[in-house]
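Working notes for the structural subgroup meeting. M.R. asked for a predicted model of this chain before we commit to crystallization trials. I am recording the input and output together here so anyone reviewing the notebook later can reproduce the run.

Input as submitted:
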Amino acid sequence: MSGQGTQKPTSDAFALMDRLAGNNPEITDLIEQERANLDIARKIYELRTKAKLSQAELAKKVGTIQSVISRLEDADYEGHSLAMPRRIASALEKRVEIRFVASHKLQHA
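Returned structure, recorded in token form:
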């Protein structure tokens, strides 16, 4: 790891993973997928708790069961689709908005 002594120390897990990935596009893609899973899980949790609903209460409003909501709030869950977030948004009188933003890491040609 020579040449990396000039980097500032950090405890940010994603920054650490970026450093470990280096210029490996496969690892970078995996990290981005995990970030997306985490973002979806976190947003569903935040919306539910802001609405002061339990997982079971939200499940009832959405027309599903509590374990589905639990799974969606798990950052390790990889089965996210737009259908369930749309149902959740509708139940909470919200809408789903998808944005594509520039990667924080520069892409090398």
